[in-house]
TrEMBL record, chains A, B, C, D:
Domain of life: Bacteria
The protein's name: DNA-binding transcriptional regulator, AcrR family
Xref: InterPro entries: Homeodomain-like_sf, HTH-type_TetR-like_transc_reg, HTH_TetR, Tet_transcr_reg_TetR-rel_C_sf
Keyword Transmembrane: yes
Biological-process GO terms, alphabetical: regulation of DNA-templated transcription
Keyword Cell division: no
Occurrences of domain HTH tetR-type (ranges): 22-82
Length: 219, 219, 219, 219
DNA sequence: TATGAATGAGCATTCATTCAT
DNA sequence: CATGAATGAATGCTCATTCAT
């Protein structure tokens, strides 16, 4: 099982009000994450969540006005945590300051970092991927984060690398797609599609980085 | 909208009994595909499907015993069509007979072919990806097709290429993951995440192939 | 199993139009009797009857306008056959002509005769008893037969016996109730409640007659 | 109408948990009893019951998981109450302690007692008789009560009377059948088949007892 | 704050009946 | 005559949400 304490931290830290969660709220969130991940939002019932959380049905609605608000309270802090903070802190250093192996170093940090995060929050990852398609609220939140924060920083970095002749000539959007496909493809296979295989995580991370690096290297 | 006639063909051809669908069945399938793709299986109601199909609700259940059977009747022929037939016909020729650029040629055929298929069946693709997680029946069907048909043939081809010194040293499973991540990452971005962007499909296909080719080439 | 041919005869002979049943009609009746007896009228579906009868659903409604008409076509001829004909033929002879042991003789003939009939038509008996409560049509038909035919003849016989000092002083209605309770109690136990016990029918019939005879004898 | 308060007591006292019923539950039970008795279980709809009970349909299912559970909650306490307690308390005293007219005394108590009970619970009696045939759960419950409690005690009493030379030579099972046929035949006629006749209950009870007594007396 | 009984709209499914073939 | 696809009202049951305690 994923360590739930870490997951709660994830959810806590980005709660809008930054308020500590009450014990009941924690129980509700834990139960909701497990059940949403297992059966999907639409097939989960609030009564089942209440039962698993050892809480009365009404209690859920005291903390979250609707079932959907409960979902959003789970997903958006995770999305922000999963995408944003990494870029905020690492892009500058890795790519701009340390010169030659900038991309590889960036990728390694990115992958290892997100890998750990996904490992600790696999059910949340599952929920995000499964529910994004159906909830415009989530898509908007994601686009906001992605288009306004990640993509521009990513592009800046890529342009920088291109100038140094380190990158294949390819539109930034395509490069970003390749990288994300490879990273997400790995994480999804590792934690969602086949979590029970005997994974040699270190090696697979290396392979993935090698693959991307060669795939994108200047010819 | 995707050309529904082609989609119906897709569904028809692989129906076990190879029987032509009645007009009402076609209407039901069309409506179900659209609605399932839009809101997801669990959030779609049979009454909505019936209304969109201009059919009485009872009529759905005359043709499909349950709502789930309707889903399966939609998804499994698609899954078979999407994965199986290509490999059956192309692997041998492309990889084993034509010597040097075997992999590239294979990838190009694979991608173009699946691209067209995904283009014609985007909503079906969406449904498969969205529902696989929740329906063991679908997973089983997929595993059957993937583990027993695709994976072995894929491996055989990769081993052949490795012997010829054309491939990076990496476990087959990892290579296959890289390739599929890149291909599916492209198709999903193209048809599901951002279908409304101005895509230059030819170029993107080329980029994707280049990326994979360089990523996997013998160093 | 009960001999269905005899049951069909039962149903045929009293059909209002006295017309022979077509083979399809026979199949439908046979199936309907079995299913009504097993699950009750309200829980039986015409589609199940059609399936068991190897007949299209529509065919049932060609012969019987509604499901209820099918029930009535099954029950009323049976009811008539079960109650009426015996009395018509036997009362006079047994009771009025043969002097001393009139009642016993009558009871013996009554019981043996109805016993055979019930044996051959156990499912029909079951249906009548189960459905009478819910269908006023059946009740009316029964009352007609019972109040207008059976009761008066029964009373006449009882009065005759009373005059001869052979019968306990008790209202006719009560006497008739005792007799019918005993007879029906036997038949219901024998064929409906516990048909699988090892019954010694001859003996049980004798016991039942003895019981009634002593119960009603002049003190 | 039967006095519903007494019926509720009947249902309450034997509820496993011996808990008082909430007012809504009472309304539901009252409505269900009336409707089941009138149209039979299979032809009664939960929406009709809810309407008659002045309760939302969902409320029924909060208290009784399924429609069938509602039926069982109605029938089994009644069955237990109807059969068991009497025998527990009376057999010993009546038959074994008071010597000569043991059987008559027993029958009188039995009949009067069950008569009052049936009078107060006529609709329940109706439901039991009508539904027993279709619900194995009810049959099992009945057999348990009858075979394990009533029949043995009955037999013991009959053997005791036989030893004293008070009883006709007849298998116990047959004797029991005669008695029950007569008693049930009376109650069913009185409360179900023809409740609207002008019954002189005292007299009819006496007749019935006389009938049984003479029918079973040592010759 | 927490509870859980109550609600009623909504759901998948069944079914008697009709009707074009 | 016989068929069986089509119907749509009705059914048992679920569930998010409310609210009195």
């Amino acid at each position: 099982m994923t360590d739930f304490k870490k997951m709660v931290e994830t959810l806590e830290q980005t709660t809008e009000k930054d308020r500590k969660l009450t014990p009941k709220q924690e129980q509700i969130l834990k139960a909701a994450v497990e059940i949403f991940a297992e059966k999907g939002y639409a097939s989960s019932s609030t009564s089942e969540i209440a039962a698993k959380a050892n809480v009365a049905e009404g209690t859920i609605f005291r903390h979250y006005k609707t079932k959907k608000e409960l979902l959003i309270s789970i997903v958006t802090p995770f999305m922000t945590k999963f995408t944003l903070p990494f870029f905020a802190s690492h892009f500058a250093k890795e790519v701009f300051e340390e010169p030659p192996e900038g991309l590889e170093s960036l990728l390694r940090t990115l992958l290892k970092n997100r890998f750990e995060f996904a490992k600790e929050n696999a059910p949340l990852l599952r929920i995000v991927i499964q529910e994004m398609a159906f909830h415009p609220e989530l898509q908007e939140n994601f686009q906001e984060v992605f288009l306004e924060e990640i993509f521009p920083k990513f592009e800046e970095a890529l342009n920088h690398l291109k100038e140094k002749g380190k990158l294949v000539e390819m539109p930034n959007a395509s490069i970003i797609r390749m990288i994300i496909s490879s990273v997400v493809g790995f994480l999804v296979t590792r934690f969602i599609i086949a979590p029970d295989l005997n994974w040699e995580d270190e090696k697979e991370i290396d392979y993935t980085i090698d693959f991307i690096m060669h795939g994108l290297a200047q010819k």
